[in-house]
Specification:
With 248 residues, this protein is α/β, with parallel strands linked by helices. The protein contains ten helices and nine strands. It is elongated, with a radius of gyration of 19 Å. It binds nicotinamide-adenine-dinucleotide and zinc ion.
């Protein structure tokens, strides 16, 4: 066992209230591409930002096409070794919150209670009205869209319907950001996993924890702009690293 893994295991062993923060990198081993790796979603599809979604019918159509194309991948994806290592620490009562930028629901599928997963970029399993927040199920959107790519509109107020995810340029969910900050301020160890840590304001959350006195660990294949603030940086693969550390 290398010294850095020993150090990571030691921090995990000593901590009682760990905040976990995950990005798309934890789910690549489940077959869901991330944004910024070679071959990732970024290379194929430039993200549609929120103002484009609001302004352009074609952007809204394209975002529903992508959503339904991704669905076959998402519905087959299962939690991997990384998710399972986190859920095993959770079962031992060592984790206070799992803050995630992901929209794939795999932390919940691995056994972390919905109440302890904080989804700062929303959730892709349903849609809602941008004006009155009335929920619309994806099945209903699909029925409407399948005919001739007709765009769904709110059955209550006529507003635009969008998946319940947060796009670039869209306001962050207030309650989730408050809970994430609370976890960052109160945890005794903060572990950022599989995030490029360039998407703000989510990337502020690890810094909040560090400033409040928690040791910060970053586990990511590539360097991140926050590596210099971390107490321990592991440029390693996520699944095997978390599995080996949680077994120690
Ligand atoms: P990102 O794509 O910017 O970064 C992922 C990071 O993980 C990269 O730095 C990459 O090097 C690293 N990585 C990938 N696989 C790894 C592995 N097996 N081991 C170690 N490191 C690995 O992702 P982000 O920072 O989460 O931000 C992008 C945005 O895209 C987020 O808002 C997120 O919501 C969204 N997104 C979500 C999903 C999902 O829900 N699974 C998938 C793609 C994008
Ligand atoms: Zn509405």
């Amino acid at each position: 066992m290398s010294a850095e893994l020993e150090e990571f295991a030691d921090l995990v062993r000593k901590s009682r209230s760990i905040a976990i923060f995950t990005g798309a990198g934890i789910s690549t081993e489940s077959g869901i591409p991330d944004f910024r790796s070679p071959g990732g979603l970024w290379e194929k599809n430039r993200p549609i930002d929120f103002s484009e979604f609001l302004q352009s019918e074609e952007a809204r159509r394209e975002s529903w096409r992508r959503k339904f194309a991704m669905e076959s991948v998402l519905s087959k994806a299962e939690p991997n070794k990384g998710h399972m290592a986190i859920s095993s620490l959770y079962e031992q009562g060592k984790i206070c919150a799992v803050i995630t930028q992901n929209i794939d629901g795999l932390h919940q599928a691995s056994g972390v209670s919905d109440a302890d997963v904080i989804e700062v970029h929303g959730n892709t399993t349903y849609a809602k009205c941008l004006d009155c927040a009335t929920r619309m199920e994806l099945e209903r959107v699909k029925e409407i869209f399948a005919v001739d790519e007709t765009l769904p509109s709110c059955e209550k107020c006529g507003g635009l319907i969008k998946t319940a995810t947060i796009s670039f340029g869209q306001a962050m969910p207030v309650e989730e950001m408050r809970r994430a900050a609370e976890a960052a301020l109160s945890c005794d160890l903060f572990v950022a996993i599989g995030s490029s840590l360039v998407v703000y304001p989510a990337a502020e959350i690890p810094l909040t924890a560090k400033q409040a006195g928690a040791p910060l660990v970053i586990l990511n294949r590539e360097p991140t702009p926050l590596d210099g603030y971390a107490d321990l940086v592991l440029h390693r693969e996520i699944g095997e690293t978390l599995a080996s550390v949680t077994k120690l």
